[in-house]
Amino acid sequence: MNERNRSSVLDEYLVIQSQLGDADAFSRLAGRWHPRILRHALRFTHNADASRDVAQESWIAVIRGLRSLQDPARFRAWVLRIVANKSRDWIRREQARRRAVAREGAATPDVDVPSQAGDFDRVRSLRLTATPRPLQARALSCALEARSRATR
To answer: Would you give the DSSP letter of residue 152?
Structure first.
């Protein structure tokens, strides 16, 4: 029996024992698979911190779904699919976060954090005037138009 087969057989055994509630078997399974899960997540996220988060979310999904895995020989494909799906979820969340930050950055100018209470009101008023809302912009436009008619 070659090494790959021994490894697969051991994984199958650990999966079956884990499904039966053997915490030591699950701990051994996690010890064997955690580095692979981290590497797989890193391939998707290209971010070490994110890959650790994805691995943690993946292990939670594994714990919740392990009893429903009908073919222990499919553990490898099953767990890597979970990691891929959790990685994709992370990528979607990160893209949404970046879009929100970009929208927020475009809508408000960078303003220093106020150092005194009096500065806070000034910064707040700057922010309000720097990002006119549609109604404020329309009112400003009407006022400018009326002013220009009055000076003609």
So the answer is: -
The tens digit of pLDDT for each residue in 27-56 reads 999 999 999 999 999 999 999 999 999 999
CA distance 80 to 25: 19
**Residue 83 DSSP label:** H
DSSP letters spanning 2-50: -HHHHHHHHHHHHHHHHHTT-HHHHHHHHHHHHHHHHHHHHHHH--HHH
Answering whether pTM is above 0.70, one says no
- Our CA angle for 22, 25, 28, nearest 5°, is 150
Residue 114 lies in a domain: no
**Counted domains in the chain:** 2
* Angstrom distance (rounded) from CA 12 to CA 29: 9
Residue-number span of the structural domain to which 136 is assigned: 119-151
Q: What's 69's DSSP letter? A: -
